[in-house]
Design brief:
This protein folds into three domains: about 120 residues, Butyryl-Coa Dehydrogenase, subunit A, domain 1, CATH 1.10.540.10; about 100 residues, Butyryl-CoA Dehydrogenase, subunit A, domain 2; about 160 residues, Butyryl-CoA Dehydrogenase, subunit A, domain 3 (Up-down Bundle), CATH 1.20.140.10. Helix content is about 50%, strand content about 15%. The chain has a four-stranded mixed beta sheet. The chain has a four-stranded antiparallel beta sheet with strand order 2-3-7-6, with no helix packed on it. The protein binds flavin-adenine dinucleotide. Flavin-adenine dinucleotide binds next to strand 1, strand 3 and helix 11.
């Protein structure tokens, strides 16, 4: 909690979201984890009633017109109750609705965004296919033109909220002969004839959020349901990777925070060898590291949100910072959750405490919305570009020459000898 950098309005937003998070019935969380609930309509209805969906979206469509910093403050608190609920909170409103607001026709804004932000309908997002998720541009789901419509065929899998969704944001190949980045279209597909969802996965965590397989068989959609026009999918995908990954980072902080709070209380009360176990450095230092890591993660997310809000940071640098935040926060959260579990001994491994659910839930953060290996690829690409385009031109001391033999140019060999002689 970085209260000291929040404005009065941001503190009040945080407190409002905290009240919503406190409202979430315990039975809903447990029933989702037991898969007795497969899609928590009640949660989204309540969020809509409280005007807590799509905070960054324009007021005219039911959002609040807030900033990225506001959004990450809210997302952290949303993550506290349950990771699965946070996934649903983010996907429908922050990703699909933002894509429609930025790239869709007015009809979609009225038919999807307005009711979704009220919690009346839901929209899921389908990028991943059984064939693979990392190679997004290798999609095989395809659409063929038929008069004024497009007919879509293909499959998507692991789609959060598929079970309860009324609409799907689907990427399909519309120009197979074009280069990979120019052949995809993002369509808004209603749950209509030819759309089938299957609830088939036994998930390790984030249960009860309707994650399923989506099968599209000769599904007819009008061309006006294409976001950013036909073959404009890359524009939608690139923009949506910010809410996907920054949103995930922020909510992951919230989901792991209770692990530290529970472990702090436990280790201050639990005794061994006549003393509270927090007095043993092996225990107390673990908690200290967890608090430090959580603050570092939050600092990274806040500064990334500031960069995204500023409008002064290049899109490549924002992309790098967002990918760094997603990777760093998810790996840090995993470390924190495991350290906290360790400080609690055997009882931390049972369902007497929710530590085991937190561990199961947040493991997803390293895999979804682009695996952490894909984050590394993006960070690498953007950093090398940024270094040679901008950083190298900065008027700063070049420390490479602050060494005794810095002038020995003959020792600075960059080519291998074989190549040199060619
Ligand atoms: C619970 C859950 C919910 C999800 N929700 C959604 C959703 O709502 N919508 C959606 O579209 N998807 C969703 N996903 C899918 C998720 O985004 C993908 O699982 C993820 O992108 C990885 O894709 P994949 O599973 O096909 O693995 P693959 O792409 O097959 O990758 C397997 C492994 O290979 C690595 N790898 C692949 N290519 C490279 C490379 N070039 N360099 C280095 N490493 C590489 C990956 O990092 C990974 O470790 C969800 C997944 C889960 C489990």
């Amino acid at each position: 909690m970085f209260d000291f950098i929040m404005t009065e309005k941001q503190r009040s937003l945080r407190d409002e979201v905290r009240q919503f998070t406190k409202w979430v019935p315990k039975e809903m969380i447990l029933d989702m984890d037991r898969e007795n609930i497969q899609f928590p309509h009640q949660y989204l209805k309540e969020a809509g009633k409280r005007n807590l969906l799509g905070l960054r979206l324009p007021i005219q469509y039911g959002g609040r017109g807030l900033s990225w910093v506001d959004n990450v403050i809210a997302a952290e608190e949303i993550g506290v109750a349950s990771y699965s609920l946070a996934c649903l909170w983010g996907v429908g409103a922050d990703i699909v609705c933002e894509a429609i607001v930025d790239f869709g026709c007015e009809e979609l804004k009225q038919e999807v965004v307005v009711p979704l932000l009220k919690g009346e309908v839901y929209a899921a997002e389908g990028l991943t296919e059984p064939r693979g998720g990392s190679d997004f541009f290798g999609a095989t789901t395809y659409a063929k033109k038929d008069g004024d419509d497009w007919i879509i065929n293909g499959q998507k899998r692991f789609i959060v909220g598929a079970e309860g969704a009324d609409w799907f944001l689907i990427y399909a190949v519309t120009d197979p002969s074009a280069p990979a980045h120019k052949r995809l279209t993002a369509f808004m597909v209603p749950r209509t004839k030819g759309v089938e969802t299957k609830y088939i996965y036994g998930l390790m965590g984030v249960r009860g959020g309707g994650a399923g397989r989506l099968i599209l068989k000769d599904v007819r959609v009008p061309e006006r349901f294409a976001l950013n026009g036909i073959n404009g999918g890359v524009g939608v995908f690139t923009k949506m990777m910010i809410p996907e990954r920054l949103g995930t980072a922020a909510m992951t902080i919230g989901s792991v925070r209770p692990a530290i709070e529970i472990a702090t209380r436990y280790t201050s009360k639990r005794k061994s060898f006549g003393q509270p176990i927090m007095n043993y450095q092996a225990v107390g230092f673990k908690i200290a590291d967890c608090v430090m890591m959580l603050d570092a993660a939050r600092g990274m997310v806040y500064s990334t949100a500031l960069a995204a809000d500023s409008g002064r940071v290049s899109s490549g640098r924002v992309r790098r910072m967002v990918s760094e935040s997603k990777k760093f926060v998810s790996e840090t959260a995993w470390d924190i959750a495991n350290k906290c579990m360790q400080t609690m001994g055997g009882i931390g491994y049972t369902d007497v405490y929710p530590l085991e659910r937190i561990v199961r839930d947040i493991r997803l953060s390293m895999i979804w919305v682009g695996s952490n290996e894909i984050m590394q690829l993006i960070i690498q690409n953007e950093w090398y570009k940024e270094y040679f385009q901008d950083v190298i031109k900065e008027d700063i001391r070049d420390v490479e020459f602050d060494s005794v033999n810095a002038d020995k140019e003959e020792e600075k060999v960059y080519q291998d000898e074989d190549q040199k002689s060619i």
